[in-house]
Design a protein that fits this description.
The protein contains twelve helices and 15 strands. It is of the alpha/beta class and 360 residues long. The site of S-adenosyl-L-homocysteine (SAH) has 17 residues, from strand 11 and strand 13.
Length: 360
């Protein structure tokens, strides 16, 4: 596994951001401060097994050490700006603000198979997909691994109060994880650690717009996570009109990288296909899509497009969504229609942040 070097342990006020550390880094950090390495493991367990938010809670650390930590380190730095809870399915959407003023969204979804959390990897996005709210204001800055961890902790703490836990994580919030690769991987290492949140790699989904070098790198680096690829169109002409990234990495190259990922990891790909009324949702499109992916071990997630006020998109009627799914299945391709979570709280990516920005 490729070890990712990061320079983001310390920020702004010079205090160490503890959510930015893998367990081994935390042990080294304590050693560099003249403390025994096992303090790293203890603090890591406090952070992720006990979900501690203060050093005072860390009762197996000597009191003087706790006071020193409070001076030179911080646990969380984000503030909850808004919280919306769906009356329909209990989906919770948090809008979080960091000290430099940026805001991102994270969403907790409750399924019958467990709780999943959607995390944002960038503030905004520069990919420019025509149907997406996250990219409207461009890319503001990267999220650090620790800031991604912190997003997750808001849901972890809420679930703990209910006796539950986070069972899966999807990197499907705002931003493109492959455009922030090192931090995204470090985030995965931290939440996967068995001494911490212990989230299995198979329960972590990295969703990409289709940055081919990132897919190849992920295939090679020994973290067999679930890869979701936002395909959304079966021809280059149509895909380029919806997703500018297709000009750099057209469909044939993208699917070659997907085949490589399957070969290297033994994992199936999950293709995302947002159905936009009158654009990519005909039965002919379904047949073209099926013939593109037929030889790839995969699953297609059909997503009725979410309404974005600025985008003026038409939704595909329910009957047509189901007809599209049946056509794919008839062609021998696995397809499900994604259950929509929290549609009463605008839970799709970028929507809450965009709304909030419009209000202030
Ligand atoms: N940048 C990554 C992950 C973030 S977007 C990616 O592109 O995959 C997560 C998913 O939501 C992607 O499949 C994206 O294409 C999709 N999406 C964006 N806007 C949408 C909308 N208005 N309706 C439905 N899906 C949308």
């Amino acid at each position: 596994m490729e070890k990712v070097q990061s320079t983001t342990h310390v920020q702004g006020d010079g205090r160490a951001r503890l959510y930015n550390f893998r367990q081994d880094e935390l042990a080294k950090w304590f050693q560099s401060r003249g403390e025994p390495a096992y303090r790293g493991r203890q603090v890591f367990q406090w952070l992720y097994q006990h979900l501690a938010v203060t050093f005072d809670e860390m009762t197996n650390l000597p009191k003087p050490l706790r006071s020193r930590l409070a001076e030179c380190a911080v646990i969380g730095t984000a503030q909850e700006r808004l919280r919306q809870v769906s009356k329909v399915d209990g989906t919770v959407k948090f809008l979080l603000a960091w000290p430099d003023g940026v805001t991102v969204e994270t969403v907790l979804m409750r399924h019958n198979y467990g709780n999943s959390v959607c995390v944002s990897t960038q503030v905004g996005c520069k990919m420019g997909c025509r149907f997406c709210a996250s990219t409207l204001g461009g890319m503001i800055r990267q999220m650090t691994a620790g800031e991604m961890v912190e997003q997750l902790m808001f849901s972890a703490r809420l679930l703990r109060q209910e006796g539950g836990r986070v069972s899966s994580v999807v990197l499907m919030g705002s931003g493109e994880p492959m455009d922030n690769y090192d931090e995204a991987m470090k985030f995965i290492d931290i939440i996967h650690d068995p001494d911490g949140l212990n989230i299995g790699l198979r329960h972590i989904t990295v969703s990409t717009v289709g940055l081919v070098p990132g897919i190849v790198r992920l295939a090679d680096d020994g973290r067999p996570v679930t890869l979701a690829v936002s395909l959304h169109a079966p021809t280059d002409e149509l895909r380029s009109s919806m997703m500018p990234v297709n000009r750099a990495y057209p469909i044939a190259k993208l699917l070659d990288a997907c085949r490589y990922y399957c070969r290297k990891t033994g994992r199936r790909i999950s293709f995302e296909y947002a159905l936009v009324g009158g654009k990519n949702d005909s039965l002919e499109h379904a047949r073209q899509l099926a013939s593109l992916v037929r030889d790839i071990p995969c699953h297609i997630n059909l997503i009725p497009v979410n309404y974005v006020p600025e985008r003026n998109l038409r939704r595909t009627p329910r009957d047509q969504v189901l007809a599209f799914q049946r056509e794919l299945q008839a062609q021998g391709v696995n397809a499900t229609v994604r259950r929509e979570m929290g549609h009463d709280i605008a839970a799709a990516c970028g929507q809450l942040r965009a709304e909030y920005a419009g209000r202030v």
